[in-house]
């Protein structure tokens, strides 16, 4: 039976929500991770757990077929709580110190080719439509690809910085400057340029946005760039479903989700500019090692070009000599 969280844990989650602006789905995941820990030791307060007990909990989760990524996320939640809580107590030891999880394989992120991206974003059913929902979708996907935003960052975008009636923007547009200011992971705010196509698509969408906005709306919905059918800030799931529909119509041979457009943005910028630091800054990666995985995508692209173009790149094919 699941236990309720301790008071310090509830305070930590409240701190992340209020001070660090963590997304609601991230907070929900952290809550589940903390409950997991409590369920392992129903007779011991989480604040009294030892390093050996944390290690044992991770080992038990591993035995239950939790994968490396899931274990890493769970341990990250536990570690985050203790790092916040320990300095406020007389405890001298953080029980999560030196606890490790199985190594996560560094697989290549999925990215579309430039041609596939153009086929997706230039599909006639979207480009020629004047329906508000289609103009909204075109603007969303152009911004995802043109600025490399995360899905949560896209959904949180406001038309302009707004601070009113207890609501305050975390991300917003500045069409005059051709950029967006977004608050990403860890509450870090960065500015990212908007491409010309994204600015055009946004301008067309904002001209008809009022058709989806009810007269009586909350301050948050009035501020939101992208609205759903009922006039509220668009939901993550709606963006995912609309992009999936477009990818099927355009015949792109891949499962296209919002993060694929982010990966494609990073890969294509690197192919053209070869500036890893600039891509790191635009993606909002805290560590450049996270961005470096895209150099493998870039090399993969170059290798394919080499194989097709260089006269001595291919091994002789015995069938061709028959």
CATH fold category name of the largest domain: hpI Integrase, Chain A
How helical, in percent, are the residues?
Answer: 40-55%
Shape verdict: globular
| Alpha-beta classification | alpha+beta
Element order: H for helix, E for strand? HHHHHHHHEEEEEEHHHHHH
Q: Which blocks of ≥5 consecutive residues have pLDDT under 50?
A: 288-292, 294-307, 309-322
- Strand order in the sheet with the most strands: 1-4-5-6
**Radius of gyration from CA coordinates:** 23 Å
Question: So how many helices?
Answer: 14
Main pleated sheet: 4 strands, mixed
Describe the structure.
The chain has 322 residues and is α+β, with helices and mostly antiparallel strands. The chain folds into 2 domains: 7-88, Orthogonal Bundle (DNA polymerase, domain 1), CATH 1.10.150; 114-306, hpI Integrase, Chain A (Orthogonal Bundle), CATH 1.10.443. The chain is 53% helix and 6% strand. The protein has a 4-stranded mixed sheet with strand order 1-4-5-6. A hairpin with a 4-residue loop joins β4 (171-174) and β5 (179-183). The model is unreliable at 288-292, 294-307 and 309-322 (pLDDT under 50). It comes from Advenella kashmirensis W13003. This is Tyrosine recombinase XerC. It is found in: Cytoplasm. The active site is at 150, 185, 259, 262, 285, 294 (o-(3'-phospho-dna)-tyrosine intermediate).
Topology:
Blueprint: H1 7-18, H2 24-40, H3 51-63, H4 68-85, H5 114-121, H6 124-127, H7 132-147, H8 151-155, E1 157-158, E2 163-164, E3 167-168, E4 171-174, E5 179-183, E6 189-193, H9 196-208, H10 219-223, H11 236-250, H12 258-273, H13 276-283, H14 288-309
Parallel strand pairs: 1-4
Antiparallel strand pairs: 2-3, 4-5, 5-6
